[in-house]
Amino acid sequence: MATEEGLLEHLPHHGPPQGLARWLAATNHKDIGSMYLWFALTMFFIGGILALCIRAELFRPGLQFFQPELFNQLTTSHGLIMVFGAIMPAFTGLANWMLPLMIGAPDMAFARMNNWSFWLLPPSAALLLLSFAVPGGAAAAGWTLYAPLSTQMGMGMDMTIFAIHLLGISSVMGAINIIVTVLNLRAPGMSLMNMPMFAWTSLVTAFLIIAVMPVLAGAVTMVLTDRHFGTHFFNAAGGGDPILYQHIFWFFGHPEVYIMALPAFGIISQVIPTFSRKPLFGYTSMVYATASIGILSFMVWAHHMFATGLPATVQLFFMYATMLIAVPTGVKVFNWIATMWQGAMTFEAPMLFAIGFILLFTIGGLSGVTLSVAALDIQLHGSYYVVAHFHYVLVAGALFSLFSAIYYWFPKMTGKMVSEPLSKLHFWWSMFWFNVTFFPMHFLGLAGMPRRIPDYALQFTTFNSIATIGAFCFGLGQLIFLYNIIFSLRHGKPAPEHPWEGANTLEWQIPTPAPYHSFVEAPTLEVIENGVIVGMHGGKHG
Amino acid sequence: MAWQRILFACFFWTPLVRAEQLNLQPPATVMAVQEFNLHTLLLAVTGVIFFAVLFVMLYAIVRHRKSAGHTARQFHENTAVEILWTLIPFLILVVIAFPATQTVLAQKRSQGEDMTIKVTGYQWKWRYDYLDQGVGFMSHLSTPRDAPDAQARPNYLLEVDEPLVVPTGKKIRLLLTANDVIHSWWVPALGVKQDAIPGFYRDTWFSVDRPGTYRGQCSELCGKDHGFMPIVVEARAPEDFERWLAARKKAAASAVDDPNKVWTLAALISRGEVVYRQNCVACHQANGQGIPGSFPALDGSNIVTKNKAAHIEIVMNGSKRNAAMPAWSKQLSDTEIAAVITYERNSWSNHTGEWVEPKQIKALRAGP
Predict the structure, then answer these.
(1) For residue B74, which residues of chain A lie inside 8 Å, CB to CB?
(2) What is the enclosing helix (H) or strand (E) of B192?
(3) Strand-by-strand arrangement of the B125-130 sheet
(4) Nearest-CA distance from B304 to chain A in Å?
(5) Residue B7 above 70 pLDDT?
(6) What is the pLDDT of residue A1?
(7) Is residue B293 very low, low, confident or very high in pLDDT (cuts 50, 70, 90)?
(8) Exposed (0-12), middle (13-18) or buried (19+): which is B115, by Cβ within 10 Å?
C-alpha cells in the first residue's frame, strides 16, 4: 500500500474522501452531479427497455408478448421513469456540475441538502421498479394517473404515489439549491443580466419546480386518500369530480413540460455560440422569452383537456393562450439561427446534437401549434399524433440537448476527450432512427389510432412495424453512447485546456479537468452577455 | 363542397393511400370536413415555417462554416429584426385563430337536435339508449379475441355485436356519461370525440349525410381492455332507420325475461355462460382464474363455493374493496344476475349444484 500512500501525499489538501463514503456522504457538487448523471443514464436505459417492450408488442397486430394489463403497466412506468427518473435528474445533475463553475461559486449553496436530494432518488426508483413484483403489478393508469382509474389499481399504485412524493421532495430541494446558488453565490462581476443562459433557464426552471411539484403531490395524495381513507375528491358518487383531478394534474403537468424544455434551451444557447464562434444573438430577448414561457406555462393547462367537454369560452381561452406560447418559443429558434448566421461554424458532436435539436424541436413545436387548435384537437387528442408530438419535444428536445451537453462538457468534467467518430456516429444514427420511429406516429394518429392500446386494427400495421424497427435501432444506437462514455473515461485522449476554440464562459477558465474544489476564493470577473468572460482576477481552486 | 368531395375521393380511393392512410379519415360530416380543412391549413402554415427555418439554417451551415473559410461577424442584436420575428408569428396565429374559433363554436352548438341518444361508457363496452324511442342496448366487441384467424377479419377489433344505428340527415345529439372510469367516444369520420365522465353528462352532436358504417374506438385509457371497446355507427336512410327501430323494439320486447319464469339448472347455467362471456370474462377470465393481484379467481373461491348470500351481494352491489367490481344490478336483469351466479357456482371446479332463481333477485332488488 506504499504506492497508495504516495499517491495520497500528492492529492490536494481537500481531496475527495475514499471509498463508499465519498458517495454516500457526498457534499461536493461535482460528485453529486456525477451521481445524478449516472442515475439518469441508468434510468434512461431501464425506461428504454420498457419502451422496447411496448414497441415489440406493437410490431404486429394481435397480442404476442404481453397481456393488456401488463402492457398498461409498461406504458405507465416508461413515462414515469423517463420523466422523473431520467430527464429531470439529468438536468439537475448538469446544473449541479456546471452552475457553480459557470457563475464562479465554490459549490452549491446547501451542500448537505444536495446530498439528500440525490439520495432520495434511488429509493423512489426502487419503489417504481419493485411495484412490478407486487400483486396486481405496477401502476397501469398512464403516467398521468387519471382518477378514477387510478383509484382502482392494486398496491403498485400506492408505491407509485409514494415514489412521486419522494421524487417531488427531491426536485423541490434541488430547485431551492439552484435558486439560492444562482441568486447568492455569483462571483463579483457576474450580474444576473450577464450570466450564461444555462444559469437563467435553470433558475426559471427551479421556480417552476417549486411552484408545481407540490401541486402534483397534492393530486396524488388526494388519489391516495380516495383509495384508502374514504374521501371522494374524484368519486362522483360521493360528490366528487373526476375532472378536478385533471385540472390539478395538468396545472402541474404543463409547467412540467417546460421544466423539461427550458434547461434544454439553456444548453443549446451555450453550445450554438461556442461552435459558431459568435455571441448569442438577442441575449436579452432570450432571457425575457424564457421568463414569459415560464409564466405562460401556468395558463395553458386545459389544452390537455379539450376532449373533456369544457365550455366554449374556456376552450377558446386556452386555445389562444397556447397559441401565444408559440411566439416566445419561435423567438428562441430564430435567435439560435441568427447566432449561426454569419458565424464560423464547426460541427463537433455537441454542435451536431444542438442542430438536430433545433430542427426536430421545431417539428415538435409546430405539431404543438396544430394540437393547440381546440377544434382540431378533437380529432388528435388521445391519438398517436400526441405521442409523436411529445416525443419530438422530449426525445429530440430534452434528450438530444442532454447528449449535446455531455459531449460539450465531458472534457471539462473528466479531463478526457470522447471519441469524435463514435460521437458523430451516435448523432447520425440517433437522428435517422429517431425519425423512423416517431414520424410515422403522426400518420397513425391522423388515421385514428388511439394511444395506450396493446393491439390495433389492421390498417395501422405498416406504420407500427416501421416504428418498432426504428425504435429497436434507436435503442441499439444508445449503446454507442454508453460505450463511448465508458471507453473515453478510461482510455480517452487527455483533454487540452481549451478543447473548444469558441468556448468563452467561466467554466472554461479553470484547469481541465475541473479541480475537486473550484473557486474556493471567488474571482473578480468582467463579464459580458451570456456569461462571456473578458477579464478574470484572482480566484483560487483547492 | 362538391369539389372537396371530389378531391377526397381522388385522394382516398387510391389503393396505396387507402391501405396506409397518411391523413385524417375521409370526413362524413360537416364538422369533420371543417376539422379536415383546419388540419390542411395548419399543415400548410407549419410546413412553410418549417421549411423556411430549415432553408435558412442549411444556407448558414453550408456558407458560414469555418472550413469554407468564413470568419465570424460579431453582431449580437438587431431590434428591428427581433420585433419583426415576434410580430409576424403573432399575426399568423391570429389568422389561424379565426377559422379555429368558428369551428369550436360550431362544435359546441348542440341544440336544435332531432334525436337524443345517451351514451354510457362501461369497462369495457358501450351502452346506447335512444331516449325518445325507448330503446337501449349494450354494444360489445364482436371480434373473437382468442380465435387464431381473428386477424383475417377485415374489421379486426373494430366490429361490435350491436352498432349504434342513426338516421342520415338528422342532427343527433349525444349525451355522454360513464359508469366506472372516464372513457372517450371517438369516431374520426364523424369528427366527434367526447369524454364520457362518471357522474356527469357532457354533450356533443353529429349529422351524417351519407348512409354508411363508421368505426372508432375509446380514446381515454380506461383500464385493461381499453383497446377493446370499439364504436361502430351505422347511418341509414330515415325510412331504413324506422324499420330497424321497429324491429329492434320487437326484438327487445320478446327478449325481456319474465323474472317469475321457473328455470331448469342446465338452462340457467347455459344462459349464465352467455352473460359471463359478455360481462365477466375480461377480468375473471374464461377459466375463472382471474388475474392474480388484480382480479380474484372465482374457481374455488370461498364466496362462489360457499357463501351464497355474499355472492349475490357482491354481484348486485359491487365490491367495497375493489372499485373494479361494479354493481351489476344497474346493468343486468334479474334473470341475467341469477343466471350468471348460477353459472359461476357450477363451473370449473365449482360443483355446488345450487342455483339462484330470478325471483330471488327480484325480491332483493325490491328491498326487504
Answers:
(1) 278-279
(2) strand B192-196
(3) B135-139, B125-130, B115-122, B172-178, B202-206
(4) 21
(5) no
(6) 38
(7) confident
(8) middle
Asked if A271 and A343 count as a contact pair (C-beta separation under 8 A), the reply is no
Chain A residues with beta carbon closer than 8 angstroms to that of B181? 146, 148-149, 152, 242
Q: Rounded to a whole number, what is the distance in Å from the CA of A536 to chain B's nearest CA? A: 22
The SS3 of residue B193 is strand
Asked if the bond preceding A494 is cis, omega within 30° of 0, the reply is no
State ipTM: 0.90
Q: Which residue of B has its CA nearest to A284?
A: B77
CA B123 to CA B278: how far, in whole Å?
Answer: 11
Q: Is B217 left (phi over 0), alpha (psi -120 to 50) or beta?
A: beta
Handedness of CA A111, A115, A120, A125 (dihedral sign): positive
Known catalytic residues of A are 78, 107, 143, 170-171, 254, 256, 258, 269, 303-304, 329, 332, 451
Instruction: Tell me which residue has cell 441538502.
Output: A113
User: Which run of H or E residues covers position B215?
Assistant: strand B212-218
**Helix, coil or strand: residue A500:** coil
Rounded to whole angstroms, the Cα distance separating A166 from A125 reads 9
Q: Which residues of A162-186 are buried (b: 16+ CB within 10 A; e: fewer)?
A: bbbbbbbbbbbbbbbbbbebbeebb
Phi and psi angles of residue B79, each rounded to the nearest 5 degrees, phi first: -55, -45
Output the nine-digit C-alpha cell for A180. Answer: 439560492
pTM of the model: 0.90
Three-state DSSP class for residue A219: helix
- B304 pLDDT band (50/70/90 cuts)? confident
Q: How many residues does chain B have?
A: 368
CA A196/CA A105 separation, integer angstroms? 14
CA-nearest of A343, A342, A349, A332 to A276 is A343
First to last CA, chain A: 26
Give the integer Cα–Cα distance in Å for A511 and B147: 68
Looking at residue B12, its pLDDT comes to 47
Rounded CA-CA distance A105/B86 in Å is: 35
Q: Does A435 touch chain B (CB under 8 A)?
A: no
Give me the residue from B53, B158, B224 closest to A362, CB to CB. B53
Closest chain B residue to A67, measured at CA = B224
